[in-house]
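User: I'm preparing a small set of examples for a lab meeting where we compare how different chains pack in three dimensions. I only have the primary sequence for this one, and I'd like the structure in token form so I can line it up with the others. Please keep the answer compact; I'll paste it straight into my notes.
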Amino acid sequence: MLSSPSPFRGCAAPSLSRRERDETPKAAKGEGGLNIPLTISGAGIATMFRLFIAALVAILALAAPASADRIKDLGGFQGIRSNQLTGYGVVVGLPGTGDDNLEYTVQSLKAVASRFGLQLPPGANPGMKNAAVVLITAELPPFAKPGQRLDITVASMGKAKSLRGGSLVLTPLLGADNQIYAMAQGNLAVGGLGAEGADGSKIVVNVPSTGRIPEGATVERAVATGFDSAPMLTFNLARSDFTTAQNVAQAINAKLGFGTAQAIDGVSVAVRAPPGADTRATLMSMIENLDVTSAEPSAKVIVNARTGTVVINSAVRVGPAAVTHGKLTVRIDENQRISQPAPFSQGQTALEQKSSVSVEEEKKPMFLLNPGPKLADVVKAVNAIGASPADLVAILEALKEAGSLKAELIVL
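Assistant: Understood. Below is the structure token output for the 412-residue chain.
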């Protein structure tokens, strides 16, 4: 045990009066009133330090935001995007499921044959059941370089019943500027299946008139993004939100220094960056991996009237309202009764119509929505009356019209 050092070392300890001795804290006295010197061990100091650090970490954890998103998950940098490519081509080798003498199919095959110096005789229109004209689509990702491969989708434009077993003839893929960016060719992979009998009966599974060619196109030209020479970098949010844009700018400034980023509007954040591909690529990688707290989304209720699906986000609030919901059923039963005449009355047997009308009303209690309930309270209250999805849509629409639903109601 190490005694705590005396602050009066090197001089005589001051004497205490009897009154001062009586006022000495009891914690410094042992049983029987004996004075016990206050001591603390080295292990005790280490234990207290560890407890202090643990408490500090717990406080910081509580002070930190409950959840954070990476900036790269909230949007992307301007100019770095994919580009759509399209092409018009011919699929050959079909087992009699082609376009069958469509005029533009014949013209397309003549154009293909002319590439190799072949000319069909005038007026010759061979059967085209083994060929089909198709539209090819592909997506050119950013920074794609010549020689890289792309997946393509091939869809029939004519009367072809199925593209199964077909091969795409070499076809250029054009961009929006009408320039060639890729060349497509290959054998199709078709997930659908179709079969037809001689009597006209047929069966179709999925969509046999559409197929894909994995890595069926080769990039021939790269698209310049201009990210290395633009005056500044611009980060665009996927969803417009001024609070999130400000949070992104603050996170960038906290990492790279004040004044580096500035929120332009609810979508764009401008970032000052030195020119040069290597410098900007490093800077963009650093920015994309920063954590930022997203703003709470605006209150929305999404209703799909066709499927009865209702989605309510956590920001929805409901004002005070009283709601009741019930059903009124009117039932009409028609019955026929045979009426027999009295004996010796010379009457005739007749068929008599008898109708019974009844009204049934389902009784459901009214429930009260207190001011400002959250999503869980709304769902619990609606479930309490056993409302179906269709009934829930009617209740939400009525609450919106009454001004009690503090949310945007979107009907798909």
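A couple of notes for your slides: Helices lie at 18-22, 42-63, 103-114, 242-256, 277-288, 375-384, 389-402. The two ends are 77 Å apart (CA to CA).

User: Perfect, thanks.
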